[in-house]
C-alpha cells in the first residue's frame, strides 16, 4: 500500500491512504541506514486488519524543513505581526530566503493589523513585496483560496498568532494559544506535535515559533539566488562570481541605483552575506586549531 504520513507521535507514524488512517511503525532497517520517516513523506507500507502496520519504503522527497522535520511541502504561509511584536523585514527576509532555497512557495500574511494607527506603511511594504512577486495578505478572505488543494506549512516568529489564525481557519482544531508574555516581550510557544490537518481541500500544518532562523545557505551564489530580484538582475553582471558588493560591472548595483531593487532588501542581503562570511572564517579558525 502507499500513502502519506500525516502525523508522527511517540514512535508511531499515522498514514493516510485512500481515505483511511493507519497507525504504523518504521522498520529497524531505516535506523541502520540513518533514515527517519517524516510528516509529509510518501511511503509504501504494510497494514493488516487490527494490527500495527510497518513502513517499508520512503519515496524521494521534493523538499524538506528541519525545524520541525516536515517534507514535500507546496507552500508556506509566513506569518508576521504588524505590532506586538513589531513587523521586522529582516526576519521576514530570512524566512523568504530559506523558502526560496528550499523551493517552497512563500505567502506573506500580516496579523494584528487592527493594532496599527495607520496602515500606510504596511501598504507600502505590501507594494514592495508584491513587486518582487510575493503574495502579501492581511485578509483571511484573500488567504483561504490559496490553501485549496495545497500542502501548506504555517511558520513565523513566536507571538505573531499562528495558532489563533489556524483556529480561525479551522475552528475544530482548537489549538492552544497563549498571550504575549509581558516580561519576555514574546509569546510562549504552544505547538507540540507536527500534524497535517484537512482544510479547504488541502492540508495545513502548524510549526513551532521562533525569533530567529538559520537560512541554511553557506555561499554568496546561493544567497543571491534566494533573492528573486537580485537573481534576475545578476544575469547581466560582468563577473559570474559577482557578490554584488564591490565588483565592477555589477548589474545588481545598477538596478539598485535605478530603483528596481528595494534598498532595504539589498541591505538585508548584505547583512546575510556578512553573516555567511563570518561563519566561514570562524569555521576555518576552528579547523586550523585542530
Structure summarized in a few sentences:
This protein has 290 residues and is of the alpha/beta class. The protein folds into 3 domains: 2-60, Beta Barrel (OB fold (Dihydrolipoamide Acetyltransferase, E2P)), CATH 2.40.50.140; 65-206, 3-Layer(aba) Sandwich (Rossmann fold); 220-289, Ribonucleotide Reductase Protein R1, domain 1, CATH 1.10.40.50. 33% of the residues lie in helices and 26% in strands.
The second-level CATH architecture of the largest domain is: 3-Layer(aba) Sandwich
The fourth-level CATH homologous superfamily of the largest domain is P-loop containing nucleotide triphosphate hydrolases
Terminal CA distance reads: 50 Å
Q: Please tell me the total number of domains.
A: 3
Number of helices: 9
Return the structural class.
alpha/beta
Q: What strand order characterises the main sheet? A: 10-9-8-11-15-14
Looking at the structure, the CATH topology of the largest domain is Rossmann fold
How many strands, what sense, and barrel or not for the largest sheet?
6 strands, mixed
What coarse outline follows from CA principal-axis ratios? globular
Low-confidence runs: 178-191
Protein model, in words:
- The chain has 290 residues and is of the alpha/beta class.
- It folds into three domains: 2-60, Beta Barrel (OB fold (Dihydrolipoamide Acetyltransferase, E2P)), CATH 2.40.50; 65-206, 3-Layer(aba) Sandwich (Rossmann fold); 220-289, Orthogonal Bundle (Ribonucleotide Reductase Protein R1, domain 1).
- The chain is 33% helix and 26% strand.
- It has nine helices and 15 strands.
- The strands form four sheets. Strands 10-9-8-11-15-14 form a six-stranded mixed sheet, with helices on both faces. It has a five-stranded mixed barrel with strand order 1-2-3-5-4.
- Strand 8 (75-81), helix 2 (89-102) and strand 9 form a beta-alpha-beta unit.
- Helix 2 (89-102) crosses helix 9.
- The chain is globular, with a radius of gyration of 21 Å.
- The protein starts with a strand and ends with a helix.
- 32% of the residues are buried.
- Residues 178-191 have low confidence and may be disordered.
- It is an enzyme of class 3 (hydrolase).
- Zn(2+) binds at residues 237, 242, 244, 250.
- InterPro entries: G_CP_dom (IPR030378), NA-bd_OB-fold (IPR012340), P-loop_NTPase (IPR027417), Ribosome_biogen_GTPase_RsgA (IPR004881), RsgA_GTPase_dom (IPR010914), RsgA_N (IPR031944).
- Its cofactor is Zn(2+).
